[in-house]
Design goal:
The chain has helices spanning 55-66, 74-84, 92-112, 117-120, 141-153, 167-181, 200-211, 228-237, 251-260, 274-287, 302-306, 351-357, 386-396; strands at residues 3-19, 28-40, 45-50, 128-133, 158-162, 189-193, 218-220, 241-244, 265-268, 292-294, 312-317, 326-328, 330-333, 336-339, 347-349. It has 397 residues and is α/β, with parallel strands linked by helices. α5 (141-153) packs parallel to α6 (167-181).
């Protein structure tokens, strides 16, 4: 089998609900996507996805590292992609391109085996514990309650709330989430995520106050991603576990975390160098007796990966309903994500929807973090402005 071609599709779609975090409290509904297809001479096609900005890097890396090769040699091809990017480093958009192509290659490898990815990876039981993650700072209390009640109706007994800008609001809204999820457990898992908005000392102060009311499972990104000393300070200063890692990109980035024991729960994703690198990072964490949590992913590919990670703890569900351009072979039952038996990663493209939503160029505010880092981050809390609240209110309606 040989790789023969690459197709890319840019599109924009509207979320059914408003999303945002401490860095984007105004919220948004419009988002963009880049679907790719890796074609072969045997008629099999591998699917994957990335941010719109990665398109030039994906095309360049495809021509250099993938074209003409056997996709079943995925780990070797991914190593070669990383080696090609050695001098300039393989973080940022380069990493996103490598991750996107790696996922497409694993899709092809599993399809060549005529089995789902979880079997190709060596998983035993197709079942992964999951929690609901609302990306919910812009949501009204009423909509927050409705959304977590909906997720609870699917069996979820854990949730993660975006926090960081106002302590009174955060404590009240954690209670709303907990009450909604309590139908499935007297002690639902409660995660909080301040998205690197706090300094270590702020994090210790605010989280310690929250701990007086709630039993927290973890506090995610309570300090800057590269501040391994600050993260360790937070971990030592609170009862709650510190979760971090989703915004790191290489094994080298994680080495200080392991050496200094900066995080109690290591967060990786297929966006970190694809399936290949994410699984290696999970193995490295296993060597340090650290649990792995998996973030959101294209087509819920993490449900497949989780089955083959011995130190897997729980995975994030941010997109409860399929993107209009794709369908996926993963279902949710009893608080678990259950990958099916379709060959590959189980993603299929809705061609009609893709054609209707196709764009030549994406809008500026459709990227994963369109507003950058919020003013006051690491210094002091800046509550949402009147304009931001008004925009969020408009999007909630």
């Amino acid at each position: 089998m040989k790789i023969t071609g690459l197709k890319t599709h840019l599109y924009e779609t509207k979320n059914k609900r408003v999303v945002g975090d401490a860095n984007s409290p105004a919220g948004r509904r419009l988002q963009s996507g880049l679907l790719i297809e890796i074609e072969t001479d045997e008629g099999l096609t591998g699917y994957s996805s990335a941010g719109a900005g990665a398109k030039p890097q994906i095309e360049s890396m495809f021509n250099r590292a993938l074209k003409g090769k056997d996709p079943r040699n995925v780990t070797g091809i991914t190593k070669q992609m990383i080696d090609y990017a050695f001098k300039g480093g393989h973080g940022g958009i380069v990493n996103e391109a490598i991750a996107c192509l790696d996922i497409g290659l694993w899709d092809l490898k599993a399809k060549a085996n005529n089995e789902p990815l979880w079997k190709t990876l060596g998983g035993l039981t197709p079942k992964a514990r999951a929690y609901a993650s609302g990306l919910d700072i812009p949501m009204t209390d009423e909509n927050l309650k409705k959304w977590y009640e909906k997720m609870a109706s699917w069996g979820f007994d854990g949730g993660k709330l975006k926090i960081g800008l106002n302590q009174d609001d955060d404590i009240r809204r954690i209670g709303i989430m907990k009450d909604a999820l309590s139908v499935n457990s007297k002690h639902p898992l409660i995660m909080i995520d301040s998205n690197e908005y706090w300094s270590p000392k702020q994090a210790i102060r605010f989280i310690s106050e929250i701990e007086e009311t709630f039993d927290l499972t973890w506090a995610e990104e309570p300090a800057r991603r590269w501040d391994f000393i600050g993260l360790k300070k937070v971990s030592d200063g609170i009862k709650t576990a510190v979760c971090a890692g989703e915004n790191l990109k290489t094994l080298g980035d994680f080495l200080p975390y392991f050496h200094y024991k900066s995080a109690d729960v290591i967060q990786v994703s297929s966006g970190i160098g694809g399936v290949t690198v994410a699984m290696r990072l999970a193995d490295a964490a296993y060597g340090f007796e650290l649990p792995i949590t998996l973030g959101g992913s294209f087509g819920h590919i993490h449900a497949h990966m989780a089955t083959a990670i011995p130190n897997f703890m729980i995975m994030e569900i941010t997109q409860e309903e399929p993107d209009p351009c794709i369908s996926w072979d993963v279902t949710f039952e009893g608080g678990y994500a259950i990958p099916g038996n379709k060959p590959g990663i189980g993603v299929e493209i809705n061609r009609d929807a893709l054609e209707n939503l196709r764009v030549d160029k994406t809008s500026p505010h459709t990227q994963a973090s369109p507003f950058g880092r919020r003013p006051g981050a690491g210094l002091y809390q800046v509550p949402p402005s009147k304009e931001e609240r008004a925009n969020a209110k408009k999007l909630n309606s």
